[in-house]
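Entry for the shared binder. Reason: the reviewer on the internal report wants the predicted structure included alongside the sequence.
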Amino acid sequence: MHQNRLLAAGAIALAAAISPFAAAQGSMFATQVIASNTNGNAGGGIFLPSNALGAPAGTAHVHSLGIAGDLTLGFSVPIVDGPGADFIVSENAFRLASNALATFAEVVFVEVSSDGVHFARFPSRYFGPTQQPGPFGTVPVGSYSGLAGQTPVLATTPGADPRDVVEAGGDAFDLADLSADPLVQTGLVDLMAIDQVRLVDVVSGQSLDSLGMPIFDPGAGSADIDAVTAIHQLGSVASNGPRVTMDIRVDGTVTLRFEDPDGWTDIDPGTLRAAAVGIPIGAGGLLGGMTLQQADATGFTLVQNVPLPPSLLFTLSFSVKDRAGNRSGITRTRPTF
């Protein structure tokens, strides 16, 4: 009896220790389907909105938006504007063996709200082919900016961190990119209290990007949503965490900065991750081609000054943690005009 009481006490203590962690893990993913419009199940697919809740689960566990359809997901803990990317949209993009730099992409507009009424849409740009790629064609990764659905998901890989923009794959979004939106400027959308994310299917050749250019994607159907993962949430963003910022200019040159309020020595070099076109690669391979432009007490700035061919589309991603485990990561697309 005494042994049973000890075992029971131990189990209770273990459960008490695990419960907060489990709750935190669960809250990083969408927890509620707020609204779903599949446009009469247009385009075929798997029409089960609850498949988009929880962690990324793979190609058989998705929800098809329907051509021109949309899906609004709710979060029990609001997403906030932290250092770098703040959430990741996982869609069912995939690569063909014949070309690892391109994907079969079905893309979506991404919108956020803090009141369920006013939604701010991320600015979008399309840089890809100016005609329909075909129902089974591909587009270069880097053809889309501010849209989700071009980068394959890696979060289902054993050991992958679903909040790391490199390890998780998918398409990462930084709420700071909405700072100039009129709804944000007037306070109707609070970037420190985002509790809904809406995904709107792009109709190839008909939907327009933020500059009025037609957007094309290869899919004959609609986007298939796997999950939305919060990186920064209310109450979990440290004021002294690291920050990664990156600027890719039209000519393909890059400026990259790593910094930490506690000093650059607080950045854990063992956590540095990098990806090109969504493919994780050794960070040294990318950083090795860059030169140190500036160094100070809190961080350092690297530049890649060699212009790349104008026709080369690409994305770059970097992520890092400080020694306390606080994270920052960023993904940027090379603009072409």
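Summary line for the report: Residues 1-25 have pLDDT under 50 and may be disordered.
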